[in-house]
């Protein structure tokens, strides 16, 4: 500041600036030419470098984000599919177990029913057999009684013919006929 | 005269000699410089006019500026001509550069402000970096016109000179950013908001304190305007110019060493590569910081975008 004051007070500020400019080679034409060169480079870079590069970077960022989102979605879908598969497998297993259990129960039920039916059939057959046997026994017994009675009558008739009088024979026959079961 | 030896090719042109150093000429550079043995006066402060084109003087720093600009445009064109979803090497490199810069500035300025300012700040960084690095290419300051001295050939007008070792270039960056800063501030704050931002008292004072603060902040605002219009452009201009000019001088001085100068110069060369990167970063960061400071909204104390505060980054 003192230098400025001195220079200004001496009226030499303009001369001082001119001298500095001359010493340093400051020239308006060179200055403008340099500035134009810089401006051209700046405009070219803005048009052909920054714009396309930043657009490409943004595009790449978007694509990467999209790819990440897609990958995340695929991962979630895969996890969901895996969960679905596990769930289906579990459901299938449970259903198979249930079917197996039901089959076992049905088989057991069928076995019981069949066993019962067979037993009833066997009981029925046995009862029929018993009834038939009883009927045969009764029939045979009747036949035997008839036969025994006939044989007894024949025997008695033969004995009576040999030992008893005809009156005795008639009396004994009458008594025998009375004693015979109805 | 055509001289070929130790990586040095000298050709006579119209009264002048164009000396072409081979690309691998750092040792030759050192040796030749040592052979001349002249008192070293360093790089001139101003760039040298080579010829005129349509009334415009073409200087050696402009040649370097155009070369760097052409290289940037070429790389950008090659990388983005046929962009694919799966990038090739060049496209991948350019995408990495743009994305890194964008994310860095977005973290600093917020998503809203970075959309408005990215193309300028990123170009400032890339252009300054490229001009710094292209100026370091072997042959950058050693191909040109010169004179034959008793101690050998001496290049007096190099074909190229670091673009940022010319005040015209760095002043151009500074004034261009100042204009853009003004435009962005108007867009974000509006004329009234800008005036309030510069001159209105802050802190919610009342009573006589408000009057005192109004007066105080008015003078602070005047200082701020002075700083924005004069100090900041000058600081931008001479910070970059000084660093690059000093770096070129340093390299030239290192090459004057008679014993092992080229080895020291190689080390200095890597230092200059780092300085070139740092200066480009500093310029971009300061520009971003000044933009953020002005485009912050007073009522929320946050940037226009996502409320990111520079202190948080």
Helix and strand arrangement:
The complex is a heterodimer of chains A (182) and B (313).
Chain A: H1 2-9, H2 13-24, H3 28-163, H4 166-179
Helix pairs in contact in A: 3-4
Chain B: E1 3-5, E2 8-12, E3 17-21, H1 26-36, E4 49-53, E5 56-59, H2 60-80, H3 89-109, H4 111-134, E6 144-149, E7 152-158, H5 167-199, H6 208-254, H7 261-295
Helix pairs in contact in B: 1-7, 2-3, 2-4, 3-4, 4-5, 4-7, 5-6, 5-7, 6-7
Describe the model.
- The complex is a heterodimer of chains A (182) and B (313).
- Chain A has 182 residues and is mainly alpha-helical.
- Chain A has one domain.
- Chain A is built from four helices and no strands.
- Chain A has helices spanning 2-9, 13-24, 28-163, 166-179.
- The model of chain A is unreliable at 1-7 (pLDDT under 50).
- Chain B is α+β, with helices and mostly antiparallel strands.
- Chain B has one domain (59-136, 164-312).
- In chain B, 61% of the residues lie in helices and 11% in strands.
- Chain B has a five-stranded antiparallel sheet. Chain B has a two-stranded antiparallel ribbon with strand order 4-5.
- The longest helix of chain B has 47 residues, at 208-254.
- Chain B is globular and about 80 Å long.
- Chain B starts with a strand and ends in an 18-residue tail after the last helix.
- The chains are: A mainly alpha (182), B alpha+beta (313).
Quick overview:
The complex is a heterodimer of chains A (182) and B (313). Helix content of chain A is 93%, strand content 0%. With 182 residues, chain A is an all-alpha fold.
């Amino acid at each position: 500041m003192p230098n400025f004051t001195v220079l200004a007070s001496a009226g030499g500020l303009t001369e001082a600036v001119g001298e500095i400019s001359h010493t340093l080679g400051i020239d308006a034409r060179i200055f403008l030419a340099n500035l134009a060169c810089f401006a051209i480079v700046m405009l070219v870079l803005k048009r052909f470098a920054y714009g396309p590069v930043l657009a490409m970077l943004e595009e790449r960022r978007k694509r990467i984000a999209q790819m990440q989102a897609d990958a995340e979605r695929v991962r979630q879908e895969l996890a969901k599919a895996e969960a679905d598969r596990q769930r289906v497998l579990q459901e299938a297993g449970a259903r198979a177990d249930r079917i197996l259990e039901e089959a076992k129960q049905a088989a057991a039920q069928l076995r019981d029913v069949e066993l019962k039916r067979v037993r009833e059939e066997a009981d029925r057959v046995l009862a029929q057999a018993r009834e038939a046997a009883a009927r045969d026994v009764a029939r045979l017994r009747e036949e035997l009684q008839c036969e025994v009675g006939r044989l007894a009558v024949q025997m008695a008739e033969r004995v009576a013919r040999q030992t008893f009088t005809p009156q005795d024979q008639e009396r004994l026959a009458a008594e025998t006929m009375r004693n015979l079961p109805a | 005269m055509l001289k070929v030896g130790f990586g040095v090719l000298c050709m006579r042109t119209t009264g002048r000699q164009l000396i072409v150093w081979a690309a691998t000429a750092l040792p030759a550079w050192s040796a030749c410089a040592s052979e001349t043995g002249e008192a070293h006066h360093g790089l001139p402060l101003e760039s040298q006019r080579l010829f005129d084109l349509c009334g415009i003087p073409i200087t050696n720093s402009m040649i370097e500026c155009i070369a760097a600009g052409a290289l940037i445009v070429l790389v950008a064109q090659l990388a983005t001509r046929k962009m694919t979803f799966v990038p090739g090497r060049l496209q991948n490199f350019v995408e990495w550069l743009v994305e890194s810069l964008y994310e860095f500035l977005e973290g600093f300025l917020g998503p809203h402000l970075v959309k408005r300012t990215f193309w300028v700040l990123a170009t400032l960084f890339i252009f300054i970096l490229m001009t710094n690095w292209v100026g370091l290419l072997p042959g950058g300051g050693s191909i040109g016109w010169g004179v034959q001295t008793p101690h050998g050939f001496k290049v007096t007008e190099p074909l190229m000179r670091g673009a940022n070792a010319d005040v015209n270039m760095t002043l151009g960056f500074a004034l261009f950013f100042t204009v853009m800063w003004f435009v962005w501030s108007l867009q974000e704050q509006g004329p009234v908001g800008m005036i309030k931002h510069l001159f209105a008292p802050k802190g919610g004072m009342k009573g006589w304190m408000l009057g005192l603060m109004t007066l105080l902040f008015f003078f602070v605002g005047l200082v701020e305007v002075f700083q924005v219009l004069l100090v900041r452009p000058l600081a931008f201009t001479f910070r970059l110019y000084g660093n690059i000019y000093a770096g070129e001088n340093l390299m030239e001085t290192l090459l004057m060493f008679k014993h092992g100068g080229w080895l020291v110069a190689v080390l200095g060369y890597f230092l200059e590569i780092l300085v070139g990167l740092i200066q480009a970063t500093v310029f971009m960061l300061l520009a971003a910081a000044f933009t953020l400071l002005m485009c912050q909204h007073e009522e929320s104390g946050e940037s226009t975008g996502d409320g990111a505060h520079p202190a948080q980054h």
